[in-house]
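Mods, move this if it's the wrong board.
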Amino acid sequence: MAALPALDDVLDEYELLDSEDRYRLLIDLGRKLEPMPDALKTDATKVRGCAASVWVYPQRTADGRLHFLADSNAAITKGIVALVLTAVQDRPANVVAGMDIAAALAPFDLSRQLSANRTQGIPSMIALVRETAHRLAA
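Not the wrong board. Structure tokens:
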């Protein structure tokens, strides 16, 4: 499984595409997430506020970086969670805690590209990542 690409690289490609191809790009990005074992897909790792089922499991590496496993039962939603994680994956917890993840994702203008039903869970995904980073950075 390939590592997630840099957020800037995803944005460069995203900006060149039309709406239909942007969907495909997000779905392909979701396919790049490393597999999340079913045993980790529990109520405790489920992201609240998403129309589809989304699970995010945070891990802290030995050098203090955050690494997330994630999955969704919907391909486009899995791509959205992959996009969120692309902004923060494998960064130090204190760096992620200080990031404005929503601002990093703003150039994608997801609320205009996707239905409200598909984007309603993004703030919950971001909140979970930020809360994890704050907790682990302390």
